[in-house]
Design brief:
about 80 residues; mainly alpha; 4 helices; single chain
Length: about 80
């Protein structure tokens, strides 16, 4: 993309924003959305791995795929009370 709205790319993007982008995408992949079914955690991991360096900061993507961090994300996802 063009780095909308500030034309930022790579490490110019704040670290918190890069973490949020990858983790939010991972969680969203496992949710049923209009027009597509949810992915299994394993399928979502493969999707994140395949998009590392294309859509996501590769270091952040690698951290999301770490087993202990992945377990924490999945536990949060299973118990989160999201607004309807």
């Amino acid at each position: 993309g063009g780095g909308y709205p500030d034309a930022l790319s790579g490490e110019q993007i704040p670290l918190a924003a890069r973490i949020l982008r990858a983790s939010d995408s991972f969680a969203a992949m496992m949710e049923t959305r209009p027009g597509r079914p949810n992915l299994t955690p394993d399928a979502a991991r493969k999707e994140i791995a395949g998009l590392a360096a294309i859509e996501f900061d590769p270091t952040i993507a690698k951290l999301i795929l770490e087993p202990e961090l992945l377990r924490d994300i999945l536990e949060w996802h299973a118990t989160a009370q999201l607004p309807s």
